[in-house]
Amino acid sequence: MPAILTPWRAVSAMFLLNGALLGIWASRIPTIRDAQGLDKSQFGLLLLVMAVGALLSFPVAGRLADRFGAVLLTRILAVLYAASLVCIAVVPVSVLALGVAMFFFGATHGAMDVTMNSWATEVEKAAGRPIMSSFHALWSVGTGLGALSGFFAGQIDLVTSVHFLLAAALFSAVCLPFSAISWQSETSSGSRGEGTPLVSLPKGMLLLVGVVAFCTTVGEGGMVDWSSTFMIEVTNVTEAKAALGFTAYSVMMVITRLLGDRCIQAIGPVNMTRISGVVAAVGALLAVAGGTFWFSLLGFALMGVGYATIVPMAFSRAASEQGMSAGTAIASVATFGYGGMLLGPPIIGGLAELTSIRAAFGVLIVLAVLMSFLAGAMRPKSST
C-alpha cells in the first residue's frame, strides 16, 4: 500500500494552505475595509504596510531556515500565519490595530513563502527532476478555494471573524498533518553562508534571475489589479464579462503549472524561459493590438501560460547558487519577485493615467521580451 505521507504531498499541502489563507483574506477585503470605515486611499496605505511586513520577513526567514531547517520553520509559520488571519478579523475598529494585524499577516505570509519554497527545493533535489511548478500550481488552487469560501460566507451573511476562524481551522486541519512527515532539512551553522549580511540581494547571474522574476511579477500584479479595467475600457464589455479575462488567465496558469515540470524536464529551464517570454509577449500584444473581447481573452490566457513557470524556475535556480545558502538565495530572489508584485499595479496605473490602459499594458510586452532575452541566467549553476 503506498504511503499517504510523502515529501511531495507534504510540501504541496503547505503551498495549498499558504494560498488558501491568502485567498480567504482577499475575498473579504471590501467587508473589512467597510467595517473599519476606511476609504480606498487609507486602505491602500494599510496594504502597503502588509507588503512591507512581507518584504522585511524574507531575509529573516531565509537565514532562520538555513539555521534551523526549512521544515521546522514552515510548520511553525503555518500556524502563526493562520492565527494572523484571525487577528485581522477580530481587531477593534482602529486603523493602528488593523495596521499591526496586517503587518503580522504580511510578515508570516512572506516568511512562510520563503521557507516552504526552500523545503520545496530540497524535495525537488531529492527527486532528481523538476517538480517545483506543481507546488506552485497547488498554491494557485489554494487561493481559488480560499476565495470560494469567501463567496459562500457572503451568501449566508457569515460575519468575517467566524468565516476566518472556521476557514483557517478547516484548511489547517486538512493540510498541517501532511507536514508531519519525517524529513531532515538542510541546515548550516555558517559554512555556506558565513559572513553574509542579514539582507542579501542577488549578485551576478542571480541578479539577472531576480530581474526575470521581477519582469514576470510586474505582469502578474498588473493582471490581478488591472485586467478587468482593461477589458471594460478597451473592449467595452460589462463588469461581469470583464471578469472572464482574469479567469482565463488564472485557469491557464494553473493548467500550465501542472504540466510545467514535464516541460522543464524535457527542454530545460533556459529554453522554457525563452518560450515562456515569447508566449507572454504574444499574449500581451494580442490584447493590446487586438482591442476586441476575444483577442483580449486569448491574449490574457497566453499571458497566464507564459508567466506560469517562471517564478518556480527562479526559486529552483536560486537554490542551486554556489557560495550562498538556499534559504538566503531564495529570499533574495523573492524580494525582487515581490517587488514586482508591488510595483506592477502602480506602474500600470500611473501610465494608464498619463496615456491609456491599452498603452500601459504595452509595457508588459517589453518586459516579456526582456524575460526571454535573459533566459540564460536560469541555467542551474550545477550544470555549468
Short note summarizing the structure:
By secondary structure, the chain is mainly alpha-helical. It has helices at residues 7-27, 29-35, 40-68, 70-90, 95-127, 132-155, 160-175, 205-235, 239-290, 293-308, 310-319, 326-354, 357-360, 362-373. Helix 9 (239-290) crosses helix 10.
The CATH topology assignment of the largest domain is Growth Hormone, Chain: A
The helix/strand class is mainly alpha
CATH domain class name of the largest domain: Mainly Alpha
Q: Distance between the terminal alpha carbons, to the nearest Å?
A: 40 Å
* Percent of residues in helices: over 70%
Mean pLDDT: 84
Write down the Rg: 20 Å
- Listing every helix as H and every strand as E from the N terminus to the C terminus, the arrangement reads HHHHHHHHHHHHHH
* Form type: globular
Strand content: under 5%
Count of spatially separate domains: 2
Biggest β-sheet strands, sense, barrel: none
CATH superfamily of the largest domain: MFS general substrate transporter like domains
Count of runs of 4 or more consecutive helical residues = 14
Low-confidence stretches: none
CATH structural architecture of the largest domain = Up-down Bundle
Q: Would you report the number of β strands?
A: 0
